[in-house]
Amino acid sequence: MAQFQIEQFLNEQKQAVEAALSRYIARLRGPETLKKAMAYSLEAGGKRIRPLLLLSTVQALGQNPGIGLPVACAIEMIHTYSLIHDDLPSMDNDDLRRGKPTNHKVFGEAMAILAGDGLLTYAFQLIAEINDERVPPAIRVQLITQLAKAAGPEGMVAGQVADMEGEGKTLALAELEYIHRHKTGKMLQYSVHAGALLGGANAAQMQELDAFAAHLGLAFQIRDDILDIEGTEEKIGKRVGSDRENNKATYPGLLSLAGAKEKLAFHIDAAKHHLQQAGIDGAVLAYICELVAVRDH
Amino acid sequence: MAQFQIEQFLNEQKQAVEAALSRYIARLRGPETLKKAMAYSLEAGGKRIRPLLLLSTVQALGQNPGIGLPVACAIEMIHTYSLIHDDLPSMDNDDLRRGKPTNHKVFGEAMAILAGDGLLTYAFQLIAEINDERVPPAIRVQLITQLAKAAGPEGMVAGQVADMEGEGKTLALAELEYIHRHKTGKMLQYSVHAGALLGGANAAQMQELDAFAAHLGLAFQIRDDILDIEGTEEKIGKRVGSDRENNKATYPGLLSLAGAKEKLAFHIDAAKHHLQQAGIDGAVLAYICELVAVRDH
């Protein structure tokens, strides 16, 4: 695939995800304010990296990415709920997210908590009620089990707790990696894993794709830490330098900026290596690797 | 079944649920504080009415209630998460729940939010990963779809939003019933419905059991409102009279105390009628009806 075709594919998939997210909220019979609060954060944009990873993995395995759309939306809903709750005054107390006022700034704290709860719950419904013979119940229960593990008290929620408990402390690299493997890594890995399940990957391909996703996830977080130093507020849509102000452990802080960049390059290379080993049509996934390595927001 | 046998059955099932809840938390590999915060509210007691409704429905259909244990625990986890989030300072701002300090009073607001998120997510995992040939994937996805509908933005979360938006307003009876049908009714109904699914109810039995649960749910809420006037703080474990202080619409407020009691009796009778129509071994479920009608906490 030529680069312009890859970009076109990603653009189309991103639009498909955003249209589906809007449809899923619109069809709900519930209080209008709740629907607005849920839609507000879902529509606040972002790169949609998780849904795109899932859909690109399905495509790389030669299947129609459309079969992954409900799960892609479920992942984005869970990611969005986690941002809403993380931004709350009792958590990170952030006023801005992706350049817009955070959910509780617009709808109030109580509604923001409930909008998050609603998105989290609805995500599981979307997968359970998939009405597509290519995704039978036996696959759906696997998708749900693994999503709950990635997002729940052994996954993202554990990472958030570890992050909170680590604030103001001097962390070793292993502790920092625990936080990131759980807080962001598990959901990124799940995105690829779910795509592999839906695309019908065999055991060997699954193993390589899981390893690909693990390295990509760490690369993603290292780049995030680097951006907090090098990025501009305008581009990343939130305050720059907030990690240092909040006394948060970061890769550049532990390894120096040059050391962090080296580690970033290592993980990107390792991710690409495993992708190649999977023996699939990995052009789009390799392109996403590049995006993560050089992203400026 | 004689009354002492019914009470013994309910006691045994309650203990089975509480033991299983503890096991489910103990097996988690995650931060200890998170596990403690989740366990704290799960172990805070309560009547376990939802799990008992589920297990008693399975029993009433002649099946082994043990097959319902994971779903019963999932329901209790979702009920518990909703209490933790409802009690938060930005929501009802309650310091006491079941006679004990609320979760955020013990673990702080951020951890309470995350403990709730963890319980909600874990609940879906418990159902998805049921390892029992009597509960095949096709039943599990139905159980998950319906649980998400009962708990999510068309169910309990919608009820919570409507409740919040109704505060300080004069509500019509229809609005009050909307709140209760969603905030507490849907999860009570789900408990019976899930038990009926697991117990293999036929379509006619399902319809009667759904109607039974709808009336029971309204009765439950009316009794709750009456208790807020007539109960003692010691027995119900939270402040009495808080509804009036918070200017909340209640059944006694709209119908007078005598009118509310009449409505309670009507719904209890209707619930029993539908139970009888189901043509099952409904002795335990009828006993639960009585408990709801006369409960003092």
From TrEMBL, chains A, B:
Its EC number is 2.5.1.10. CDD domains: Trans_IPPS_HT. It catalyses: isopentenyl diphosphate + (2E)-geranyl diphosphate = (2E,6E)-farnesyl diphosphate + diphosphate. It is an enzyme of class 2 (transferase). Its cofactor is Mg(2+). Pfam families: polyprenyl_synt (PF00348). One of its GO terms (cellular component) is cytoplasm. It comes from the Bacteria. GO terms for molecular function: (2E,6E)-farnesyl diphosphate synthase activity; metal ion binding. Keywords: Isoprene biosynthesis, Magnesium, Metal-binding, Transferase. GO terms for biological process: terpenoid biosynthetic process. Belongs to the FPP/GGPP synthase family. This is Farnesyl diphosphate synthase. The lineage of its organism: Bacteria, Bacillati, Bacillota, Bacilli, Bacillales.
